[in-house]
From TrEMBL:
Family matches, as InterPro entries: Cyclic-di-GMP_PDE-like (IPR050706), EAL_dom (IPR001633), EAL_sf (IPR035919), GGDEF_dom (IPR000160), HAMP_dom (IPR003660), Nucleotide_cyclase (IPR029787), Rev_trsase/Diguanyl_cyclase (IPR043128)
Any one Gene Ontology BP term: signal transduction
Matches recorded under SMART domains: EAL, GGDEF
Protein name per the record: EAL domain-containing protein
Signal peptide coordinates: none
Keywords for this protein: Membrane, Transmembrane, Transmembrane helix
Transmembrane residue ranges: 7-26, 176-198
Organism domain of life: Bacteria
Organism: Solimonas marina
Length: 686
């Protein structure tokens, strides 16, 4: 039964009870009115009988006075007038006397009329002693008869009135008892219906309202609410659906679906709660574990498998038992570990090192996911609250900066943050925004450092180097901003803007008779992005011959996924471009790169160039590199040539292509072409 039906039933039953009580009470009111009319009629009859009796008595008294006046020889007119007045009163009362078939009153009326006719006959002649005596006798008889009959009628009316009143009141009491029973029944029915309404309507309504408020405020609703087959049941079912949806939303908001670990929102809430419960006493630690190989896994195997790997890794984090810890996934490749001992004991950096070591050990164990075997690498950044941070936001930022520094050092490293890191991070973010503004306003421009053929005194090309020309005219070197650009996606926008302008400039020079090649540094960050789109766009806009464009790649950049890097470099070579191996001879130098990648040019690192001025061993290495490049038919360029002595030494070792401050620093485009002409004309020293 629906709630609406229940309410209608309650209202109808209450109305029916009131109607029944009314039907019983109203007839009792009619009984009262009937009794009142009967008693009023009897009272009127008695009153008229009394007046009638008084009138007959007046007739008898005036008849006696008339007899006395006649006997004394006095004037009888006064007595006759009184007699006539009394007769008029009697006639008037007799006309309105309610006989209604009453034999006593009927006989009295007939007797009065007969005596009145006799009196008329006697008064038709002047009164004498005989007439006066007869009048006295007639009125005496009439008074006696009226007194007797009216007394009998009064007794009869009293008896019948009392009996009628008693009977009517008895019937009234009976009906009042029935009415009282009906009212009590209606009241009892109202009480029953009230209890029914409370149990079936009001109490379920209160329970549903309380449960709805609990669901809407995020609390657990009351247990034991029964699903009835009415609107309340519909509300309960809808409430449970809302509760399930709210729980689903809560899981989405606070749980990472891939790793099944709590997410950044959950970590923020946990840190706020810890700070609220222990604002001063007690410390806790936070470790951010950066999964350095996550990007390579996602690129090579796709996002789905990468998330599956994170899910398996999340199970390992949940098994940490070194200290009371809780793991959170706060970014695609960052997992946070919160260490909280409560107020019993402080967390120290020694504890963070122990947990970091445990985590790194778990990372060294291969993961088997969908038949694939993965070996992960990680870096870690940590901090302690409140020693290293004042609030949760600064706490996480300090750890993020520490993680960034650890990643610079390489996989397996742990760095601790401090409040100064937050200041550096803010500077880093501010510089990032300034770079973004500079890119929008075209402040990043190409500068060119010449590459010369010393034997022919000829400029063969130039390496383009990015400079930041500030609005106030200052020129900022890459060392102050390039690490920020490479740490974000800004390096792609910067390379796109500078390379397109450099290619356009060189193509214009070559169209005017110059034969210059252009080299540019290919950031390791771009090797994992769509660098091909940047290069194609620059070539299409500038119409520069691809054979005159050379991409310089450091050997460090080749240490990533060699297959992916090789594919990118092969595509660049497919465009007809040149490929140079930069900083060769130091760091990760490997002859494997010479046959794995179709390299056109080797560039000797300035460190080796400077070492050759003091070390014969370094000279032999350079001489061997000259012979190797000649055998492979590739160009060899010496970087870091800073003096005439360096020029002579490199010539002695067999080098002819050189680049360095001895010739020129990097110059803006408006100066470069003038310098080339001056150098080739012999105006400048070789």
């Amino acid at each position: 039964m629906s709630v609406r039906t229940k309410l209608l039933a309650v209202m109808m039953l209450v109305s029916l009870a009131i109607m029944v009580a009314g039907l019983v009470i109203v007839p009792s009111l009619d009984v009262d009115r009937g009794l009142e009319a009967d008693l009023l009629g009897r009272s009127n009859r008695i009153s008229m009988s009394v007046v009638l009796q008084r009138g007959i008595a007046d007739m008898q008294r005036n008849a006696v006075l008339l007899q006395s006046a006649v006997a004394a020889g006095n004037d009888p007119s006064v007595a006759l007038g009184g007699l006539q007045s009394a007769r008029a009163v009697v006639r008037n009362q007799l006309a309105f006397l309610p006989v209604d078939g009453n034999p006593t009153l009927t006989a009295l009326r007939d007797a009065i009329r007969d005596r009145d006719a006799q009196i008329d006959a006697l008064l038709a002649v002047p009164p004498d002693a005989a007439t006066a005596g007869q009048l006295t006798k007639i009125t005496q008889q009439l008074q006696s008869q009226a007194s007797h009959q009216l007394a009998a009628q009064l007794e009869r009316d009293n008896t019948l009135g009392i009996r009628a009143t008693t009977d009517e009141f008895a019937r009234l009491r009976g009906r009042l008892a029935i009415a009282l029973a009906a009212v009590c029944g209606a009241l009892l029915l109202s009480v029953v219906l009230t209890i029914f309404a409370y149990r079936r309507l009001l109490r379920p309504l209160g329970a549903v309202t309380g449960s709805l408020n609990a669901v809407l405020t995020g609390r657990e609703p009351r247990a034991g609410i029964v699903e009835t087959q009415d609107e309340f049941g519909d509300i309960v079912r809808a409430m449970r659906r809302i509760q399930a949806q709210a729980e689903h939303i809560r899981r989405i908001a606070y749980l990472d679906p891939g790793s099944k670990l709590p997410n950044r929102n959950s970590l923020d809430a946990e840190l706020r709660e810890v700070r609220r419960l222990r604002p001063i006493d007690g410390t806790h630690g936070l470790l951010l574990i950066g999964i350095d190989t996550y990007g390579a896994i996602r690129s090579g195997f796709g996002s789905r498998l990468a998330e599956a790997v994170l899910g398996a890794l999340g199970e390992r984090f949940n098994e940490l038992d070194v200290l009371p810890t809780q793991a959170f996934r706060i970014d695609a490749d960052v997992i946070a570990v919160l260490i909280d001992r409560g107020n019993s004991e402080a967390v120290t950096r020694v504890d963070l090192k122990r947990i970091a070591a445990e985590v790194m050990q778990r990372f060294t164990r291969p993961l088997e996911v969908e038949g694939q075997r993965f070996l992960l690498a990680a870096s870690a950044g940590g901090a302690i609250y409140p020693d290293d941070a004042r609030d949760p936001d600064e706490y996480v930022n300090v750890c993020l900066e520490a993680l960034r520094l650890a990643r610079v050092e390489g996989p397996g490293h742990l760095r601790f943050g401090e409040r100064g890191h937050t200041h550096r991070l803010r500077r880093h973010l501010a510089l990032t925004e300034q770079i973004r503004t500079g890119l929008r306003q075209g402040q990043f421009v190409p500068f060119f450092q010449p590459i010369v053929d010393i034997t022919r005194r000829k400029v063969t090309g130039a390496e383009t180097l990015t400079r930041w020309r500030q609005p106030d005219g200052r020129v900022t070197l890459p060392g102050e901003f390039i690490f920020v650009a490479e740490g974000s996606d800004l390096i792609a926008d910067m390379t796109r803007a500078v390379l397109a302008r450099a290619c356009t400039t060189f193509n214009g020079w070559n169209e005017r008779g110059q034969a210059l090649s252009l080299s540019f540094n290919l950031s390791a960050k771009l090797l994992s992005t769509n660098v091909m789109a940047i290069v194609r766009e620059a070539l299409e806009q500038s119409r520069l011959d691809p054979a005159l464009l050379c991409a310089e790649v450091t050997e460090t950049a080749l240490m990533g996924n060699i297959d992916d890097v090789g594919a990118v470099l092969d595509e660049l070579r497919g465009l007809g471009m040149q490929l140079a191996l930069d900083d060769f001879g130091t760091g990760y130098s490997s002859l494997t790169h010479l046959y794995r990648f179709d390299v056109n040019t080797l560039k000797i690192d300035p460190v080796l160039t400077r070492a050759a001025t003091q070390s014969e061993r370094a000279q032999e290495i350079i001489r061997s590199m000259v012979q190797l490049s000649a055998s492979l038919n590739i160009r060899l360029i010496v970087e870091g040539v800073e003096s005439e002595d360096d020029v002579r030494l490199m010539q002695k070792l067999g080098c002819r292509l050189m680049q360095g401050f001895h010739f020129s620093r990097a110059m803006p485009e408006e100066q470069f072409l003038e310098w080339v002409r001056a150098y080739e004309a012999g105006v400048l020293a070789a």
